[in-house]
Amino acid sequence: QEVQGTFPTHEGLKLKVNPDGTFPPFPGGTVVFRPDRTCLQVVLQMQRVLYHHLNGSGMLAAPLPASTIHMTLHDLISPETASGSAEEYEQEVENSLRDAAEIVEDIRKQYAGKTIAMTADRIVNMVSKSLVLLLRPRTEEDGELLEALYHRFDCIRPLSYPLTPHITLAYYQPGLLDGDLLAEGIDLAGTRPGESPVFTFYPEALTVQRFHDMQHYRDIPERICFCCDGGLNRSVLAANILNHLAGERNLPVTGEARAAYADTQGMPVSDEVWKTLEDHGLCPDREHAHARYLENREASWFTAFAEAHKAGNTDDPYYDFYTYIGLSDTAPAGRAFAALAGTGIKYECNFSGDMPELNYDNPAVRQAVLDVAKYYLDLGVDGFRFDAAKYVYYGEQDKNAEFWKWYMDELRAYKPGIYAVAEVWDSDAITDQYYPALNCFNFTLSQTSGLIADCAKAGRVTTLTNYVDKYLHNVAGLNPDATIVTFITNHDCDRAAGFLSTEKFTMQLAANIYILGPGSPFIYYGEELGMKGSRGGSNTDANRRLAMLWGDGDTVKDPVGSTYETSAQTHETAMRQRADADSLYSYYKKLIMIRKANPEIARGEYKALAFTGTNVGGFTSTLDGKTVAVIHNTTTSPYTVDLSTLTDVDFTIVAAYIGQGDATLNGTELTIAAKTSCVLR
């Protein structure tokens, strides 16, 4: 329907959406295609754009979680078509789901290996109930197959409307809609001419689903649902998890014998994965006649939590798995809650309605998240990078620190020597609270305004070395095994090549400073190529996470939602730079070689050198009775210094130098070229 002017929502929408935008009980059934990974990413990005643009308008209902995204093939039954008593309707639902499941089973066998390609057409207003992404078959053959599958379900319930392939992006909130504002959001979120993505759907992945409301769908027959980020799911690790969970749950799923999907919900795993599993001593049953899927474990936790509250079953072990308050309760300041349909509660969700907050005061929750880590450790994982570590308890640093101390003590008892680092994006005073448990990334040194970038631009190196010296002594007092974890940027920051320059040599100097420094430096992928990327006016992190520039004919694409101009990106690919001894990539290789050849740099006892009257600076580091010195000249002029004025250590050789020039040692007198670093022994 047209989207312009002011118009009311459909009267029937009130059955699906409450006046406040939450979802009331609306039980029924449908037949759907699960999305492939590309489709899921595109749709989620469209949702984000719509909700961002229409935020505060009161026109959209609560966001639909990723687990509800699907292309509808054929509606089966819903309260809109109900007649008779509640008991009779429930029986109708059961009958239609059972009959549809038999047809789906037959389709999966008959069309094994077939695909249906659909092109994203445009976002439209669907009968004034919702905003949907219309899909059209890419070829006539795709359309004919889709139509044939659609009519297979007419025997259960013939529909009065034609097949209209679509994916629901958002439901309206009942009331009057501002069509002009909606049109702006549709235009921003929609596809552009000539850029419409193509999605692939698989008859083998056709699914019957029962919905309790518009936010909660469940497969019929029940199965473990594979919903994993694309990368891990192609690995031996994922395939092992698939089989472990399927065997543990023993859930029946009809269809061809499959161990996994190689994409987020689509292609079956290859024979190579089977062989690799067996090579690693894992022997899944290849002859088993049921498909096996990877469970989205936390999704199952939340489903159990929701069901327990709907039933009012306080004895259910999942009843207190997440933090919540009563519907009429006032939320604590700074924290967000969303109503849970069919219950009298609101669950905590500070980042998104799709990310409920686990109740870490519940011993069962702590044990559950501990079991997750132990599972990966059993597979041979050596450690973890914990993202957003300060949000276990939202805004409660003391409780967060206590949790991580407990968690790491448990993991170290289970696997001594485990490696761990936490992202606690905050001041040193806050990260100090976490250091008794584990190392934290250092944000004082990083990003545009950090000390690394400042030094690389000819700032005073001694400011940085004095800071690092003090930092290391401080964290060692909190934890004798502590060290500093350095980086320039990460996936949440604008890329370093945007505020540093290879031409002005500040990119190389920044690398010198942190790679030839203590602790554990982290290189963000593509930094070694000079890749660029920033949020910019689009305000999207996708621009910071662009496809790696391999240059070997790969087909990796930039993430959905990225808007970074190709013309602004470096064209120096990994393949080209690997063949160039003077490339930035080769420069990083040399730095790493120097670091590895001088282990004192990473693990020794650090001492800042007291340079005065210059921006040149450095430090000494002693390990097992051997001492090295690292000196950085970030200025535009050569520099000479008598080392005896800085240290009692007698250095006799220049072990390495790297930069725009060289370094020479004559007795105690060191001369180092402009924009150059050196290592002395």
Which structural traits does this protein have?
681 residues; alpha+beta; four-stranded antiparallel sheet
Mean pLDDT: 86
Largest sheet: 5 strands, antiparallel
Q: State the strand order across the main sheet.
A: 17-18-19-24-21
Count of distinct strands: 24
Can you give a write-up of this model?
- By secondary structure, this protein is α+β, with helices and mostly antiparallel strands.
- It has helices at 37-53, 86-110, 140-151, 179-189, 236-249, 271-279, 297-311, 363-378, 397-414, 428-431, 451-456, 461-478, 506-515, 574-578, 584-597, 600-603, and strands spanning 6-8, 28-33, 71-77, 116-126, 130-137, 166-171, 176-178, 198-201, 206-213, 216-220, 324-326, 337-339, 345-348, 383-386, 419-422, 439-440, 605-608, 617-623, 626-633, 639-642, 654-659, 663-666, 669-672, 676-680.
- The model is unreliable at 223-269 and 280-296 (pLDDT under 50).
Nutshell version of this structure?
The protein is of the alpha+beta class and 681 residues long.
